Amino acid sequence: MVALGAAVDALAGAAATGSALVGLYIGYQAYRGLRRNDEPAMRYLAAGMIILFGVTYLLAVVGQGLIAFHVVSIDLQGVFRLLVRLLQLAGLGLIAYSLHLAAGSRVPGG
Amino acid sequence: MTVASPPTDPPSPVAPTRWATDLFLGRMTDGPVADDPDLATLVGLLDDEHVRTILAATNAEPLSAATLSDRCGVSTSAIYRRVDRLVDAGLIDERTRPRSDGHHDTVYVATLERFELVVADGEVDWTIDRTNRDVADELTRLWGKF
User: What's the CA gap between A75 and A36, in Å, rounded?
Assistant: First the structure.
């Protein structure tokens, strides 16, 4: 059962890394879209995706590492979780804002 | 003896990997792509310095005729003459970009990626490879369409 648990943990970690990479890829394309098309909506989409997938992933990994190596107390696990959730909220907020910017710049029927 | 022949097996306008991009971006298939231009048209176009500047500049980013006029140092009417021929030849794409004041900008994007001339078996053969539309541009377009 221990081996199974470790395998599941490894898979969960790999999936988390995978979604961080795909999220960062989309964020990177949004950044290129900003550079190529001067579209301000893409700035917030890129920032949102990078915070939502990249920064939260980094924070979660660093937090787990610090706790695992007893650099910080396990009592702070909840604080890390809160920070990750707040960053997710901020990232999604930026994406929602970008959506409204993009809709605002659209020509009706165009 | 030189024989200019059209490509025996014309490259499909839809690159093999494109369906995956289409699927990923939920994109509709484009209408029929113009047939490849003949070799004389192609070489004639590429013989022009400003055409090469237009291709290089619009490969890096979508640009308007006004910007291309600055880059090439020629009038916008000279630019329009060239981009019209390039669009007809299928070497660049014309797009519209909505502006915040509600008007549109027309911008041009290079689609030509590679032009290859092969002299073999007593024949001159040639192929054009076109790029897929840039993912970043499609993302920008789609995001604005939501």
Answer: 46
Q: Decide if B100 and A105 are in contact by the 8 Å CB cutoff.
A: yes
pLDDT along chain B (146 residues), means of 10: 46 50 44 64 93 94 93 94 93 82 84 90 88 81 79
Closest of A79, A83, A77 to residue A51, by C-alpha:
A83
Q: What is the C-alpha R_g of chain A?
A: 18
Q: Measured between CA atoms, how close is B35 to chain A, in angstroms?
A: 28
> B101 versus A36: which is more confidently predicted?
A36
pLDDT of residue A10: 92
Who among B97, B99, B143 is closest to A42 (CB)? B143
Q: Is A64 an interface residue toward B (CB < 8 Å)?
A: no
For chain B positions 80-139, those within 8 Å of chain A (CB to CB) are 96-100, 102-104, 134-137, 139
Closest Cα in chain B, distance from residue A7 (Å) = 30
C-beta atoms surrounding A19 within 10 Å: 13
Distances (CA, A) of B119 to A102, B2, B7, B8, B42: 50, 9, 12, 13, 17
Question: Residues of A with CB below 8 A from B67's CB?
Answer: none
Q: What is the pLDDT of residues A90-104, one digit of tens each?
A: 999 999 999 888 877
pTM to 2 decimals?
0.62
Spatial contact of A46 and A55, defined as CB atoms under 8 Å apart: no
